[in-house]
Amino acid sequence: MTIQTNGYENIRFFCILFTMIDEKIKKYIKETLMSVTVYIDKVDLEHPMDFKNGDYSTNVAMVYAKKTGENPIEFAKKLAKGLIEHKPKEIEKIEVAGNGFINFYLSKDFFIDSVKEVLKKEENYGRNNFLKGQKTIVEYTDANPFKEFHIGHLMSNTIGESISRIIDFCGAKVRRANYQGDIGAHIAKAVWGIYQSKNNLPKEGLDAKDKAKFLGMAYALGAKNYDADENIKKEIEEINKKIYSGEGGEIKKLYEWGRGISLDYFETIYKRLGTKFDYYFFESKIAESAKKIVSEYLKKGLFEESEGAIIFKGEKYGLHTRVFQNSKGLPTYEAKELGLSKVKYEKYSYDKSLIVTGNDINDYFDVLLKVMSFIFPKLAERTVHIGHGMLKLPTGKMGSRTGEVITAEFLIDQVFKRVRPKMEESGLPEEIREEVAEKVSISALKYSILKQKTGKDIIFDIDKSVSFDGDSGPYLQYTCVRAKSVIEKAKKQDKNPRAVSERKEITGIEKMIYRFPEIIKRAGEEYSPHYLAIYLIELSSEFNTYYATNKIIGDSKETQYRLAITKAVSIILENGLGILGIKVPNRM
Which CATH number fits the domain 140-402, given the four candidates 3.50.50.60, 3.40.50.720, 3.40.50.620, 1.10.238.10? Predict the structure, then answer.
């Protein structure tokens, strides 16, 4: 069989063969075990905390010995002996340590070749074909018109965008989707609030941000009165019916006016955050098809009627009961999610559908996916829900029902106010200070979100987030800019990077460089950007130590190699930050 590929695919294929040394070691361990009739499905490798303990370590001997009752140290020694006899050229030595760990030390040539590969591949370094050909749709952000774009949406947007970029880097064909609730009780509450304030509508000359703020106030007014006054509640429910039916008149005009303002405003935020969606899905376009699905499967016995509503009895499956059509005959959010899964597939016949939301609705998605498994079993198998934690300030979680919303733009602007003076202190030209401050502000926020494992809550500390020294996005940007400026300075002196093979000593920075493709693959497998964020900090820390203890530009024979290290670090940082959705300024 002949496989034809273009030059670009050959480059990417070679990249995988060369860089996935961890996979090669795992295969090598399995084959050695098989030679002594030991069969094992999985081999775990990890990087020891201290470089002195090798580049990889496995507990496979301990796992096997525990199953058979053998002495783990003795078995580890026996296994190590077999490994040493047939070790690949990339491995310099193998040692047994502790209670039976086997440590692998990579060769000097491997590290030097890995630096060469970074310089050769540049922006393609780290790409792999792990998800090649997979069509993936990633739904995230899901900001609802008529409500303010709050910091929960910022969380979803940051995580969803980064996951999209990670799996794209792993070879998937990615489409970004945004599902927005433009009908429902919250819309009716906002339209009622607009109607009450129709004589004080924002003027056309105002920017989108101020108009959107008015909508947020209108929603808060409606939500408050809906709970406080039974007559107003009936008025809002009547407005809800009119919006669902598409009935004309003043209500429809106010609805369309507010919807347009919201969507225009959201686009200004997406642009600021560096997100561009391929598809926008709206509840208003899905409601009728959702209602038909519920009706059909009520007849088939999947759903039940209860007090005029249609429900799914989740307790039968160890879950909880959810309403899919309310007593007024309107499909709920749950039902519309069913319709959405079908519409998504009709639009983009996906192999995988990722949905990023707050983890406060994890239980809801458990029920939804169970229902989907009966109605659209193939789509259910392809759907993955990723629940993230909440972004909190020291004052606690926000609540949009009260109007006390912490908006994304408010938070970005607060960070910007801390960053802007730093730009003045840096001596940057006045004409680029605003642009750099914006990039640094977005970096501070995004990194603070992405460095945490998805699912955990985050207490956002502004001072730490804007630090140029330590665990922060600006620190990563600064390190990248520093490395790139060294290369530019050397270029002016006619000194160029070159990974020479005459090296006698390998330092910690080389021991970090080669890990980048491995980190990308793991982040893609687990949909977890935090692996990449943590790696970039560790790489930057190691490089800054290297920078402080080595004269990069000089007249010694070490200069070319040190420049090669510096350029490799700048390439990895720029690639990695780009995958996190963070831009690197030209100057800082």
Answer: 3.40.50.620
Q: Domains of the chain: which residue ranges? A: 7-106, 140-402, 408-579
Dist CA 245 CA 482 (whole Å): 59
> How far is residue 291's CA from residue 286's CA, in Å, rounded to a whole number?
9
Report the pLDDT value the prediction gives residue 15, as an integer from 0 to 100.
39
Largest interatomic CA distance in the chain = 86
Given a contact cutoff of 8 angstroms between Cβ atoms, the answer to whether 140 and 176 are in contact is yes
3-class DSSP assignment, residue 441 = helix
Residues with pLDDT less than 70, the chain: 1-19, 36-37, 395-404, 501, 503-504
Query: 3-class DSSP state for residue 104?
Result: strand
- Are 468 and 474 a contacting pair, CB within 8 Å? yes
The Cα–Cα gap between 179 and 292 comes to 20
- Residue 210 has what pLDDT? 87
**CA pair distance 283, 264, nearest whole angstrom:** 18
Per CATH, the number for 408-579 is: 1.10.730.10
Compute the chain's Rg from CA coordinates.
Answer: 28
CA–CA gap between residue 506 and residue 513 (Å, rounded): 12
Confidence (pLDDT) at 20: 81
Q: Give me the CATH code for the 7-106 domain, please.
A: 3.30.1360.70
Pick from 92, 102, 88: nearest CA to 48:
102
pLDDT at 86: 87
